[in-house]
Amino acid sequence: MLTQIDHDTRTSADRQPVVAVIGQRSRVAGLPPYLPDGWHMRLATGLDDIEHGDLVVLSGATVHDVRVARSVLPFDTRIVALIDDWAQTELVAGVLTVGADVCVRGGHPGILAGHLVACRRRQMAERWS
Question: What's the CA dihedral at 99, 104, 109, 112 to 10 degrees?
């Protein structure tokens, strides 16, 4: 006998990647066309709106923002700190030290998309290791 299951049984690694953005939305407005086919970007209302497996972009990130996100989100959540082009090197070092997986200085949205793809690859590689 076959039984139909009505809920989605895919794991977060099986679903299409979702880029959840927290912070300054204007910095990521041009990102969607640069994301791979099937990827989605959504504007999260806060850390409690992040789903397991999301790639999190903290737009306009500060050291405090990254520290809080890393303490609240699951360890395997990828956190991307998006900062100003002209940000001081202390900010870059600070966000990486407290737990960002990558720090991206503003600039072209294609660069951010490339970093997100790399984060997703690391996320998938760790799933199988």
Answer: -50
Phi, psi (rounded to 5 degrees) for 37: -55, 135
Helix or strand run (H / E) with residue 127: helix 109-128
Q: Which is the CATH superfamily of the domain at 18-128?
A: Response regulator (3.40.50.2300)
The stretch 62-87 carries a mean pLDDT of 95
Domain locations along the chain = 18-128
- The pTM assigned to this predicted structure is 0.86
d(CA 23, CA 41): 13
Number of other CB atoms surrounding residue 40 within 10 Å: 13
Find the mean pLDDT for residues 93-109.
94
Express each pLDDT in 46-73 by its tens digit. 999 999 999 999 999 999 999 999 999 9
